[in-house]
Amino acid sequence: MSTRSRRAALCALVVCALSAAMAGSARAQVDPGARYRTLTTSHFRVTYQQDLEPLARHAAQRAEVAFAILSRTLTRPPQLPIDIVIADDRDYTNGMTTPLPSNRIWIYAKPPVELPSLAFNEDWLDLVIIHELAHAFHLDAHGPLGRVLRAVFGRVPFTWPVFPALGTPLWSIEGLAVQVESALTGFGRIHGTWHDAVVRTAVLAGRPDPIDRVNGSTPIWPGDERVYIYGSLFLDWVRRTYGDSVPSLLVNRTAGAWLPPALFFDRIPRRMTGHTFTNLYDVWLDSLRADHASLADSLARVGLTRSTALTTHGYRAAHPRFSPDGRHVAYAAADGRSVARTRVIDAQTGVELRAARRNSIASLGWLPDGSIVTSQLEWRDNARLFSDLYRIDGRGQEHRLTTGARLQDPDASRDGRRIVAIRNDGGTTGIVLLDYRDGAVVTRRAITSFTPDVQWAFPRFSP
Questions:
Q1: Same domain, yes or no, for 254 and 354?
Q2: 281, 309, 373, 411 — which has fewest CB within 10 A?
Q3: In terms of domains, do 16 and 110 share one?
Q4: How is 211-232 classified by DSSP, letter by letter?
């Protein structure tokens, strides 16, 4: 590669890293019209919408515990204070971290009750706090040269040597944070079943993602989750194989590099393992092939239930429900290339009978007249994105049933006079019962309490 080519490649890497950092900040906007309060601890400023005070105090307490552990086991503490913003503006689970212009964490107060990847948790807020704080330690880490440049120019938005980790592969950033969340809680995505199931099915099908595909999202399953799934399981295997100090060595070797890590990242683990990331990844996949082939053979000898595929579009086919007469199946579909849809197919042949676009994937239920009740996200205004109930009629036309009610995952009674759904509120969830008459919701009432230590999901009427 010529000198000019190297410079062009380095510039491209810097631009991409900065674009990602700025895009993350843009996605993390919260409602500017809400009323906020701030509480301060030894290392954090926790700013929260005023009705979220119990959640904010719990977040501050868990953040201080995690800070003490990460300071001992991962790397030097990041620049203080670290700002944490907790908002209840979105009916989806997410957290974001940026080191620019200071260390900042945003958390949306929505428990991950509908996400299989995050279902294995004892305290969802503890899990997300640790994950995002691991990012803050990782992304703020820098070496002697970066320290000098920060002292002179401040926290300029640049990768190496100011913020070296911003120029490293996303699978290493997210994989490390997932590994930390799982190690510190004993729960999390590595200990759950979802990540393992996704990789196991890919390995048994002969199509695991190569390392050069793991760094981004593609229309190929598992899409956006790829960096979390493959990154965390791979780095956890490296840790189990070469020692618990691997995460710390990875962070500090990247931070202290005298050349841009983006140019030699593959060689970073050589000193601690004797191999490049590419070599280690291939060995990891080989070990998975052997382990999963043995498991498949043993299960085959026991006997597996035979199944028939009714859909072929791939990517996501979620929440299937038989129609009351058993002839049709409705489900939420996404193929990774076009807008998500609610599809109705023949239960015997899988032939599509009708479809309607939808904004997000969620569960659904049948009404006696053959229409479908479901939920989807919709903007309430320019800052709040809430989930509401909709009815899809036999022609595929959409009819809104609620506005700003924050309801999801509905089911209808057999007589069609009642709908049960989950309501999101203040960092927890509860079950709500709605009276339904003539295509409209008449009344609604909560039938469970809304407490921070209990979450509800996917309610269903008995037959």
A1: no
A2: 309
A3: yes
A4: TTTTTS--SSTTGGGHHHHHHH
CB neighbour list of residue 209: distance below 8 Å, 6 or more residues apart? 202, 220, 226, 230
Same domain as 251, residue 105: yes
For the chain, the distance separating the N- and C-terminal CA atoms, rounded to the nearest angstrom, is: 68
Q: What CATH number is associated with residue 243?
A: 1.10.390
Long-range CB contacts (within 8 A, 24+) of 222-227:
222/198, 223/315, 223/336, 225/117, 225/198, 226/171, 227/170, 227/171, 227/173, 227/174, 227/175
Residue 222 CB burial class (10 angstroms; 0-12, 13-18, ≥19): buried
Residue 442 parent element (H or E): strand 440-446
Identify the domain containing residue 277 by its residue range: 3-195+230-287
Indicate if 388 and 279 belong to the same structural domain. Answer: no
| Domain boundary pick from 239, 268, 287 | 287
Backbone angles phi, psi at 19, to 5 degrees: -60, -40
Residue 72: inside a domain: yes
Each of the 463 residues of the chain gets a pLDDT tens digit; together they read 444 444 444 344 444 444 444 444 445 678 999 999 999 999 999 999 999 999 999 999 999 999 999 999 999 999 999 999 999 999 999 999 999 999 999 999 999 999 999 999 999 999 999 999 999 999 999 999 999 999 999 999 999 999 999 999 999 999 999 999 999 999 999 999 999 999 999 999 999 999 999 987 788 899 999 999 999 999 999 999 999 999 999 999 999 999 999 889 999 999 899 999 999 999 999 999 999 999 888 888 888 888 899 999 989 999 999 999 999 999 999 998 899 999 999 999 999 999 999 999 999 999 999 999 999 999 999 999 999 999 999 999 999 999 999 999 999 999 999 999 999 999 999 999 999 999 999 999 999 999 988 999 999 999 8
Enter the pTM of the model.
0.91
- What CATH number is attached to the domain comprising 419? 2.120.10.30
Kindly give, in sequence order, each residue whose CB lies less than 8 Å from that of residue 271, ignoring residues fewer than 6 positions away.
249, 253
Do 121 and 170 fall within a single domain?
yes
Q: Is residue 155 within 8 Å of 101, Cβ to Cβ?
A: yes
Q: What angle do CA 193, 199, 205 make, to 5 degrees?
A: 125
Tokens 């940026």 appear where? 98
3-state DSSP assignment of residue 28: coil
CB 52 within 8 A of CB 36: no
How many domains does the chain fold into? 2
Judge if 388 and 331 occupy the same domain.
yes
